[in-house]
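I'm stuck. Protein, please.
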Amino acid sequence: MSFIILTSARRFRSVCRLQSIQRHMMSSKAGSEVLFEKVGNAGVITLNRPKALNALNLTMIRHIYPQLKKWDKDSETDLVIIKGAGEKAFCAGGDIRAVTEAGKAGDSLAQDFFREEYILNNTIGTYQKPYVALIDGITMGGGVGLSVHGRFRVATEKTLFAMPETGIGLFPDVGGGYFLPRLQGKLGLFLALTGFRLKGRDVQRVGVATHFVQSDKIASLEKDLVDLKSPSNSDVAQLLDSYQEKSSLDAEKPFVLQEQTEAIDRLFSAESAEEIIENLKKDGSAFALKQAETLAKMSPTSLKLTFRQIQEGARMSLQEVLVMEYRLCQACMKGHDFYEGVRAVLIDKDQSPKWKPSTLSGVSEQAIEECFSSLGERDLKL
């Protein structure tokens, strides 16, 4: 009898936990977590969770997607602007903690979040009207997905870009497999594997942003954008160009990786993640050894997944990449490293994840192959 009571109590607790996760992700306050305004002929989206660095949750996705569709068909909306509230962030990423809670509890949120996020990424990537992301602050992970596939991305001196997913047992998703291999040389692979952070003007120099405008000019730029009458993409580009010309801050500073570009291309030209680490150790320079040290901290499974994701993505369309990435994220949801990475980095913050397998050699080719396999009926449909 006591066993039945205990089991029922556990089940009740589990149901309560699930309900609280769902309330957290689908709370009606989403109306205030993302704001929509029509200003002149522009639709303006404001990510409005400044205390959470505007982290993207499922409710926000479920508000943004239909609004973008509506504005795309609306003859009185000529362009879309997306920005983040507060001083610190455009969007620091997806609400990963809620996703891990759901994954552990077997809740469908672990599928829904990624599926609907990737559909939104594709909508931005195929948007017919000018789409301008003002990435004035931290822009990582899910925040990159909301901006990089759009026609225009405006960085400022406050922009901090990174795809740090290999450090939490994931991979640079949200279409990372599409835009990263299209950066110059091996830079995209380097950023994908190491999670290296780019700041300010460098975000534009590598091509993640299309323009650089000083932060104190952003309000004025936004006003000029909403005043444009039926602008074409070239009208918007012209306005952004004029603001960039007026923004001389840090122009004389060299690109942070200028001295290492040739080394990155050489050392990251390899047939496997293992070969890259071998190259770095053999090279022996301070820069190479620092990168080897960084890679040694990352999930070995994530490094192998990411290496192949970037390799495959170079030959794919954005849509094909998102289908591939949905397969990968669902494999990560079934594995160990994602939960362990989130625990170590975001929850306990001990920064000491115990990866399984703990070495690259322990990650079999078969295990990686399975992550890329079709999900059949459950594959992402765009």
About this structure: Confidence is low (pLDDT under 50) at residues 1-9, 20-28. The longest helix spans residues 2-26. The first strand starts at residue 34 and ends at 39. The chain is about 50% helix and 10% strand.
